Amino acid sequence: MLPTPSTSHVNTARVYEPAEDSFLFLDTLSSIAESSFLKAQLGQDSEPARDDRVNPSPLIVEVGIGSGVVLGFVTAHAQAILGRSDIISLGLDINQYACKASTQTVELACRDVAHGSFGGSQSTGTGLFLTSLNADLTSAIRPGTVDVLIFNPPYVPTAEVPQTSNNHGNGGKGEEETKYEENANLISLSYAGGTDGMEVTNRLLEQLPSVLNAQRGVAYILLCKQNRPEEVVQRIRQWGSGWTVNVVGCSGKQSGWEKLQILRICQVRLGGVEN
Question: What pTM did the predictor assign?
Answer without folding.
Answer: 0.89
